[in-house]
Amino acid sequence: MLNIRYEKTATPKELPAKNDPLKFGTIFTDHMFVMDYETVKGWHDARIIPYQPISLDPSAMVFHYGQEMFEGLKAYKTEDGRVLLFRPNKNIERANNTNRRICIPEIPEEDFLQAIKEVVKTDEAWIPTKPGTSLYIRPFIIATDPFLGVRPSDTYKFIIILSPVGAYYPEGLDPVKIWIEDEYVRAVKGGIGEAKTGANYVASLKSQVKAHEEGYSQVLWLDGVNRKYIEEVGAMNIFFKIDGKIVTPVLNGSILPGVTRDSVICLCKEWGLPVEERKIDIAEIKKAYEDGTLEEVFGSGTAAVISPVGQLRWEDTIMQVRDGGIGEYSQKLYDTITGIQLGKEKDILGWTVEV
Ligand code: COI
User: N6-(pyridoxal phosphate)lysine modification sites (predicted)?
Assistant: First the structure.
């Protein structure tokens, strides 16, 4: 159990207006959680302090070799005033998997959860209640040794910041257009693709810029070896409904194991839909499109929740999915997941945790 020191802000910021669309990741609350690590002391000095810039030595290792990790989860306010987290233990488990992969010391699960709960409680007034909004929680760890040699750092900072958010994509729940990348790759098996670390996201930027220039929202990655098996979108995992079956790439070491991905699989199984987690050749998607059996495509992610895909572009083929409309299961999954998150739907799978 952490002994958290509190320093409340003397100058609280103005809360966003109730009808503010809350552009994703642009507004931050009054406080943040910080905890330090040193080899001898371990994780120590847990504190909740006013949201503020951090001061680091320019030689801090995170700036040079990217030893950093992050997570993303959300808090919601129910109609009867409770504050709910959605499957926080899955994020914490994944955070420690990332930590092990990139040589960052693990954080005990109960301390991690306590830190999230306490900082959310401190800034509870910032949880937005307009439909489609939530409080995005961004825990991250950075390597802080002032040193230019390549090795794991001996010191770290663990920080949690909070941001009231609306939809991740400007499209909201309207279908997005996705560019299937055939030039660059995001990750390969044995690399760090399944870790939630900034390096995977920087690897995606060049393709993302190219896709944006062509009018596409996101990039769908193919595997780095055969350049034909579907992996993920970067900010989301990907699902297809083909001839009545829900199909998604099997976790293979280079795909991020999404918490919403797991939730989609669990719900579809609950509803009796056949779900296949397996290798998916992009040629199979093209064929399903040509046959008329490609019934739906959607992405899943914490930030995006469920994002219907209206168009896929692969090489010279433009695949228009469902005439660009929202699919039945995309809508049903979005409604059910957000319903559980907001305490409106029965939480039959025990996913929510009250703060
Ligand atoms: C999330 O869905 O929480 C993510 O981390 C994706 C993105 C915002 C980087």
Answer: 196
The reported pLDDT for the residue numbered 324 is 67
Instruction: Quickly state the pLDDT bin for 169 (edges 50, 70, 90).
Output: confident
Distance 274 CA to ligand 1 centre (A): 27
209 C-alpha vs ligand 1 centroid, how far in Å? 18
Q: Which of 168, 186, 262 to mutate to test the pocket of ligand 1 (most atoms within 8 A of CB)?
A: 168
Domain boundaries, the chain: 5-165, 176-341
Summarize pLDDT for 2-45 with one digit per residue, the tens: 999 999 999 999 999 998 999 999 999 999 999 999 999 999 99
User: Which among 276, 268, 267 has a CA at the least distance from the CA of 249?
Assistant: 276
CATH of range 5-165; options 3.30.470.10, 3.40.50.12780, 3.40.50.970, 2.40.110.10: 3.30.470.10
Give this prediction's pTM. 0.95
CA–centroid distance, 235 to ligand 1, in Å, is 5
Q: Whose CA is nearest to atom 7 of ligand 1?
A: 235
